[in-house]
C-alpha cells in the first residue's frame, strides 16, 4: 500500500449533520419568523390616558371673524394653548412650541387641531389674530386662533379647561438694559390635550420633555381612534 492510495476520512460534526436535515431548517424558519409575530400580537399596550374632565360645548370667534367651537372639533383630537398677541413674557416661546407641534403633526392631516385662545379679547380682535396667525405661518385648516367675550372666555378657561385667567396688570420687565413697566395677564403656560369626545386627557409643560410626552400621547389617541 502506497501513500497515494491512502485517504483521510474525517467524521462530520453534529452541527454539520444537523444542517443537512431539511426538518431542521423548517423548524429554524418557523421559530425565527413566528416569534416576532407572537411578540407583536401579545405585547402590552400602553395604559389609557386619564380622563380629567369634559370641556363643555363652546363657540368663540376665529381670525376670519366666523364662529368656531366644539361643533367644528367633533371627532378631532386637539391641543389648546392660552396666549395674547401683545404678551411680553411667555407667549412668544409658547407660540414657537406650537409651531414645532404643527410641524410634527403634519402627517396627521386634520385629525388633530391646534387652538390658541386669547386671554385679551379687548385687544385681540379677529383682525389682530388674523395678522398674527399669518405672521406665525399657522396652517388655517389646523391651527385656529380664537377670541370672544371676556366673560365667555373666563368661564371656558376656568370652569372648562381648568386653567387660570387673570386681569391685565402692570409688571416690571427689562428691555435691553432698562427696567420698564409692561402689561401682563396671568394665564396657563401649559398645553391641554383633549380627545375626540371633548375629554381632557392631559396637561403638558412646553419644555422638551413635556412636548415629547404630548406627541406620544397624541399618537396613542390617534391610534386608538383611527385604527
Summarize the structure.
With 227 residues, the protein is α+β, with helices and mostly antiparallel strands.
Would you give an account of this structure?
The structure is a single chain. The protein is of the alpha+beta class. The protein has two domains: 12-43, no CATH class; 59-226, Glutaredoxin, CATH 3.40.30.10. Helix content is 36%, strand content 25%. It has six helices and nine strands; from the N terminus they run ααβββαβαβαββββα. It has helices at 14-18, 22-42, 91-104, 126-136, 150-161, 208-226, and strands spanning 59-62, 67-69, 77-83, 112-118, 143-147, 165-175, 178-187, 191-194, 200-204. The strands form two sheets. Strands 2-1-5-4-3-8-9 form a seven-stranded mixed sheet, with helices on both faces. Strands 6-7 form a two-stranded antiparallel sheet. β4, α4 (126-136) and β5 form a beta-alpha-beta unit. The protein starts with 13 loop residues before the first helix and ends with a helix.
Uncertain segments are none
The number of helical elements comes to 6
Strand content: 15-25%
Number of strands: 9
